[in-house]
Design a protein that fits this description.
about 220 residues; alpha/beta; 5-stranded parallel sheet; two-stranded parallel sheet; 10 helices; 7 strands
């Protein structure tokens, strides 16, 4: 509602997901430009470390909005690492502080990325973009597991981006999610095929060069 008032007198609004149109009292947009990452820098996935990883800040403290309990259930028994600040309370799950380039290296070498929905109600997050464009195969929770009572409108885009068994895996069943992780850990060729397909989708949606053109076009119209 506040944005609508300012838009009426000249404010320009750039959205980063089509699902933002579902927000109650949606104030409209002047452009849709997704988040981006450098597809040249985030490249060269190898996946030799048979581990599961995720990126999250203060994962346990922000549990309700990051679905940390689901992460624990899904990863029980697997070799797991969590990267991100504010995770000292995770004990051995936390890798400790990591620089930007160390983060890239972790993504490049790790076999599977588990996405528990990012920060509710964001349709997607930069952590997802970074993993997806790196080419690490992603296993993600679905709409039902990700839902939150405080945000009843559609606000999670991952099931629209990932086709299970094609460019990643999405499910609302914990046992299925665990089975997908196990398959990818056991089968390096499958992991590469899924990761390569995911990266192709990611470059189309989140690649830096395309987003730069979109920003340039938008700014030129002002």
């Amino acid at each position: 509602q506040e944005l609508g008032r300012y838009r009426a007198v000249g404010l320009k609004i750039i959205r980063y997901s089509p699902l933002e149109e579902k927000i109650p009292n949606y104030a409209g947009n002047d452009a849709l430009i997704r988040f981006y990452e450098d597809e040249e820098l985030f490249s060269g996935w190898t996946g030799e470390r048979q581990q599961v990883m995720t990126i999250a800040q203060s994962y346990k403290k922000r549990s309700e909005y990051l679905n940390f309990p689901l992460f624990e259930k899904i990863t029980t028994g697997f070799s797991v690492k969590v990267i991100g600040t504010g995770n000292e309370d995770l004990g051995g799950l936390w890798t400790g502080p990591r620089s930007y380039y160390e983060l890239i290296d972790e993504l490049r070498r790790t076999r599977v990325y588990l996405y528990t929905g990012g920060t509710i109600p964001a349709p997607y997050t930069m952590a997802f973009v970074e993993a997806f464009i790196m080419g690490i195969p992603i296993v993600a929770i679905g709409n039902k597991l990700r839902g939150h009572r405080a945000f009843p409108w559609p606000n999670y885009e991952i099931p629209d981006i990932i086709a299970t068994g094609v460019n990643g895996y999405v499910s609302d069943n914990i046992d299925e999610l665990r089975s997908y992780i196990q398959m990818l850990l056991d089968d390096g060729e499958l992991a590469k095929r899924i990761g390569d397909a995911g990266r192709k989708t990611a470059v189309q949606l989140f690649g830096k060069s395309t987003r730069m053109r979109e920003w340039s076009d938008f700014l030129r119209r002002l």
